[in-house]
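Appendix B. Chain record.
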Amino acid sequence: MTGSVEVALDGVRLALDPGAGPCRIVLDGDRIAEVRPSTVDRGLLAAPGYIDLQVNGAVGVDLATETERLDEVARALPRFGVTAFAPTAITCSPEATRRALAAAPPDADTSGGATPLGWHLEGPFLSPARVGAHSLRHIRPPDAAEVETWLDGRAAPRLVTIAPELAGAAEVIDALVSSGVVVAAGHSDATAEELATAGRRGVTLVTHLGNATGGLAARDPGIVGAALDPHWTGFASLILDGLHLHDVTARTFLAALGDRAVVVSDCIAATGLGDGDHHLGDRRVVVRDGVARTTDGVLAGSTMPLGVAIHRAVAAGVCSLRAAVAAATVAPARLLGEAERGRIVPGARADIVLLDDTGRLVETIIAGRSAGAG
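Structure tokens predicted for this chain:
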């Protein structure tokens, strides 16, 4: 890529349309101008740029506690195929949450890196019984008054994860949904009936399905069974690092969810670094052999970035490359209502990743310009 006004990606096949032949994608500035057949085949696949809705941090930066360094994370993500993301703040104090929202609005200058689409607040209104790696001392009951301080700020959150079964959650969900915030259920002991009720109030996502929730049983489907039920039309996010879900579980979830599956990384500050001591929010995290855990042994997010997780899942036979790409592009764009992302069509943003046949990243293009090689 030269970064010129008009360039073309010639001889690439579309990852989301594996039956089609090679094509030529013409880019005009930051937009896709044309997609037409080509007589050349370079043996590469073109996919929309990945959209990661759960990025706690990367390259040594924890976004809950170091929001002023958002641009460093944004510049690091393209080398993993991510062209847009939801910076994620896990449960922290009310003051820290407000600081995060005020310090980094969704239009923050990220110097050609991945585009921040708005904050994902994962907490603080979570079930104390399902804290995972979150800090129990900061988890608190749903509070509509606190939510108003989020919505009155310079940048309201784009996505909020809440345990919908908690007292007061209904009022919080109503306030968020009425303000256009996407609401997810997570870190929750909700029953199937409680998730269905939350869905009717506007909850449209289950966060990292199968993690920090109750399980699926024959007479107690819980939040997992309810999310997999085709009668519930919301989405569910999955972490495909091979740790958060067994590959058999991931394969089963993906098959049941179909186009409602969203793949996220849940990557933390240790992503892109080696083993050692790191942190997630205000909790110490120890990474050994690439696995991040709190000092009491709880999985603490992932160190595997989204592009690597997609390649790993395809190589392990968890899903097809097309399914993985769709879950990292089409589905999150639909969930957020981002009509110009997640597609390779004329008029869409020229955010594209080039892959080999195994899903390994070759190059990332953001707004029509090369943003790094895999």
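Further analysis of this model is presented in Appendix C.
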